[in-house]
Amino acid sequence: MKKGRKLFGILFFIASFCCYAQEGTSVFNFLKIPVSAHVAALGGDNVSLKVDDPTLIFSNPAAAAQINDMSFNLNYMTYPGDTKVASASVVKVFSVRHTVGLTARLFNYGTMDETDEEGNVLGDFSAKDMDVSALYSYTMGNGLVGGATLHLIHSKYAEYTSTAIGVDVGLHFFDEEKDFSAGLVMKNVGAQISSFYEDQTEHLPFDLQFGITQRFEHAPFRASLTLKDLTRWSDHYYFNPEGKNSVGRKIFNHVVAGVDFLPTEKIYVALGYNFRRANELKAAGSAHGAGWSLGAGMQAARLKLGVSYAKYHVDAASLLFNISYSL
Fold first, then answer.
1. Element (H or E) spanning 279, and its range?
2. According to CATH, what is the number of the domain 2-326?
3. Is the pTM of this model over 0.85?
4. What is the pLDDT, as a whole number, of residue 198?
5. Which stretches in the chain have pLDDT values below 50?
6. What are phi and psi of 283, to 5 degrees?
7. Segments making up each domain of the chain, as ranges
8. CA 263 to CA 25: how far, in whole Å?
9. How far apart are alpha carbons 189 and 177 in whole angstroms?
10. Which residues of 75-90 are buried (b: 16+ CB within 10 A; e: fewer)?
11. Rounded distance between C-alpha atoms, residue 61 and residue 272, angstroms
């Protein structure tokens, strides 16, 4: 157990050191879009849930330790325009302490007109983002689990392409007696192997997140609070056409809150609120449900289903569907 804690302590130190080089404009921002319907329903970010749900490994690699052996997962999201969003994962448990997984996701933005400076149509082009990853989690004992994910990321927009390597490092803690869990994750630490332009290197969308989840003892509810983008506090990072953000708004831009209603052990109904998304969509002219998200799911002996509704764009909302099965 001591060796495991030392290993993940070293990984967190390296990631912390690297994150300061990732503060500028980032590419591969599709990595910020949630894959889990449960996470999406709770506001779009959650690193602390303790549930047997394979989609949670996209949010925290340490969550793999709580997934049943040989669990398969497929996901599909509706997105504005002709964009098609799909993802999949598989989790394999090798022993009480060791779990591995593979994931893949694709954003296909369809075909668009290629025009010149005067608006004349010259032809068409396609655009897509892809990510393939492998993860490993190690159970250290006393409710503590560590995990890491290695990403191979590729984007192609017409003749412009870029490839990158990224790493997520996560910790998860669960207190069974108090039904309390917590998570800490550093996401997208890495660099481009090849850039869109030869003379311009861009950063991955680094995100440091911390979250807690508490189930109430005498009520069918479970509450989650997640703090995100904990290394980014300057005004230029946040969209606000009025200029400088107030102190309160700057703080709440980092907060995501959600609650689960649990009528039975196999069913959840979730509601979430993302303060930054609400602030920025409202500022962009969309106040209709901005920031709110909701969803529901069920879990049978082997089959798990989830669906969520959320708004990530001014013009349209998105539905996210999950289906998972354990052999």
1. helix 275-283
2. 2.40.160.40
3. yes
4. 78
5. 3-4, 6-8, 10-24
6. -65, -30
7. 2-326
8. 43
9. 34
10. bebebeeebebebbbb
11. 22
